[in-house]
Amino acid sequence: MTTADPRGGAGAGAPAILLADDEINVVRTVATALRLEGFRVETAGDGPAALERLRAERFDAAIIDVRMPGLRGPELMARARAEGIAVPFVVISGYDAVDAAAEAIRSGAADFLEKPFSNEKLFVTLRNVMRLARLEEERAAARRARGRRLLVGDSPAMVRTRTLVAKVAPTATRVLVTGERGTGKELVARAIHDGSPRAAEAYVAFNAAALTEELAESELFGHEKGAFTGAVAARRGLFERANRGTLFIDEVADLAEPLQAKLLRALQEGEVRRVGASESVRVDVRLVAATNQDVRAHVDEGRFRADLLDRLNVFPIVVPPLRERRADVSALVAHAVERAVAERGVRARPFGAAALEALARHDWPGNVRELLNVVERLLIVCDAAEIGAADVGAVLAGAAPGPAAAARWDPARPLRAQVDAFEAALIAQALDAHSAQVAEAAAALGLSESALYKKMRALGLRRDGR
What we know:
The chain is an alpha/beta fold. The protein has 19 helices and 14 strands.
């Protein structure tokens, strides 16, 4: 969006205004006044033509009439918003001004002017809406940056994920996020919300696997007083609380079939009905759903509605597992340290190169969530100034790290024997934790597979740790 002063002349840096009205005299008069004031003006005589202009060029503001052939003002705003066209609208009307103003504001207009209006009032209104739009754009940029910070890493897999988020976030398109447990599906949902025009509105999260069917229905759709035992007061559901914002439904594959039907109706009709209510409530909600299950298989088995999946899976995003983005481990560790220090009050410690290499080699069945937990645990239990590969191996194997975690010093035994005993115990735990898979145990211990075999032979250990 341009930032030039509207009084600076209608040159290349002048603010661009779209003026759409089917009254030719209004268009001529208003366009002339705007150009004399230093604005660059494009005009359209009906709704469809205005939409085409909005698609073709970026405007700093749009002045549109409520009543236009082909596409009314509120419908034009809705279409533009659905296509991700971000422009502040000033709606004008000479008919039923109070009703028209209310409809315009409900439809997302930045301001409303009743015909006839003075040039000065028009200029002041335009400057105000453009200033507010610039402020919102700056806030949106900050939210997008926050979204990038949430999605840590620069591996090709993570860059692809962030690219998809950036493409879909400005739209109202529904998104289905899939991926293994712990990959950060809710972080993707939050980044989508933060990068959207709805970012200033509510972001509401719901876990479909956390509640019984009855409680889940009340939580999602709300209830009226007396609808069931314990309903002592009316309560808004999450759809109503997320109105004009984003609703994130996690573990959506676990929704009971009756709730699937109600969710489908809400998405089709844009309205919800509270439990015990006779009337529905209109809602404008952007839905993002997530699951770690194979929903297609659920459909084939008759456990999930195919028509609901079609509604949810408009824009799929698959979050990669950590084993497919090992290059991100170092950045994730830095993020985990920062988070643990800020939120848990633990003391920060650097991770040595060997420790980072050992963490990167691990397969992380629990993905990013597991890595964050391991880093926090290492920061708590390690006493060394720098966290090393042996510390990582001990924690991944389930032991406390550091020499103090071994048997007490025995003055009757040589140091070498005590060190060998410690190493043998550590290797045995690693082998046990990784089901006797030497390659996985070696990675957890920060060793190559051949080095671990060599140590096992020297210590007389078999693959079963004995």
